[in-house]
Amino acid sequence: MKLKKFLPCWSKDKNTEKQAEPETEHEPSIKNSKISNTQSNASSVDDEPDEEELEMLRKYQAKNSAGRKSVAAERYNPEDDDDEPLKIVPKSDDQRKRLKDVSDKIMLLNRLDEEQLTNVINAMEERKIQVDDIVIKQGDDGDNFYVIDSGKYDVYINKENGPEQVFTYDDAGFFGELALMYNTPRAATVKCSKNGTIWSLDRKTFRQIIVKANAKKRSQYEAFLQTVEILQNLDENEISKVADVMEEKKYKAGETIIKQGDEIDADSHVYFLISGTCKIHLNIDGEEKVLDKVLQSGQCFGEVALITKAPRNATIISSEDVKCGVLDVSAFERLLGPCKEIMNRNIDKYEEELNALKELKISD
């Protein structure tokens, strides 16, 4: 069973998102309650996950700050909708800037290209929310996706003894996507507890742009990952899991991606070069050297330090604009186990190359 049945078709950047929305896909019906982003498993009632998938789900839910209930519904198929004219809501320059700043921190929008993000911003509507306003109510049909600009919102889920607050959004976050993706009622109730502003995106535009874009991007990731030599031991199902949690990062020419000497921590990544080229820089006895070797599309870097837990042994700098797929430490350790043997074999080769550089002339 593919992990895609559990995870939404996007990945979250923990560096840019402080709080992962407890999606209003699981909203409790409560008045005067807070918004809860309980992330749900989109699993079929007939399928049973294996232990690895369950562990991945637990990690995913933990990263999103709250666990979602199961959503026993079929994933929305973006190809079912015909392309129609996109909605445009007039905005001032200030509104566009604020919305762009907020959107930059939202995981769900990370895979959108510039045109797609512009279309989403065009279609979003600003809403002023007052204390005690109910933004979404558990059990209602999903009509909008919401991005928080400011304010405080509490999430409630109905229990046997009444509504229970499970999460609070404070000036950041998003919610409401699961009901739109899986055609399910709201799984939680979200209530405002401090006046603020949110941006709403209607169901049709959400599906027309965001769901389609993420489904397409995931397919592209799968196709790309199948060409990466170091992943040759992964089967189709394992590749799909990697694609589901892989995030995309872009770097301008001359930008440092990895710095020699940096310690490995929870925010460290392994990188798969999707497009562009990079140079390897070494600091040898205080002198900066540049290797003749060029990293190109389809190559992986940064995995040695993640395996050995040693500091980064080289600096990687983009020699032109590049695009990388990245996996954090957790995903790397969980998903790339079948590749560890190949990676371990390469460690000795890398060490030999680095040691040889100290004896050779390296181009500046």
Automatic annotation (TrEMBL):
A GO term for molecular function: cAMP binding
PROSITE patterns (UniProt xref): CNMP_BINDING_1, CNMP_BINDING_2, CNMP_BINDING_3
Function: Regulatory subunit of the cAMP-dependent protein kinases involved in cAMP signaling in cells. Type II regulatory chains mediate membrane association by binding to anchoring proteins, including the MAP2 kinase.
Residues annotated as binding 3',5'-cyclic AMP 1: E177, R186
Keywords assigned: cAMP, cAMP-binding, Nucleotide-binding, Phosphoprotein, Repeat
The keyword Membrane is annotated on this UniProt entry: no
Disordered as annotated region, ranges: 1-95
InterPro entries: cAMP-dep_PK_reg_su-like, cAMP_dep_PK_reg_su, cNMP-bd_CS, cNMP-bd_dom, cNMP-bd_dom_sf, RmlC-like_jellyroll
Lineage: Eukaryota, Metazoa, Chordata, Tunicata, Appendicularia
Protein's recorded name: Cyclic nucleotide-binding domain-containing protein
UniProt keyword Magnesium, yes or no: no
Biased composition (Basic and acidic residues): 11-29
Residues given in the record as 3',5'-cyclic AMP 2 binding sites: E303, R312
GO cellular component terms, semicolon-separated: cAMP-dependent protein kinase complex; cytosol
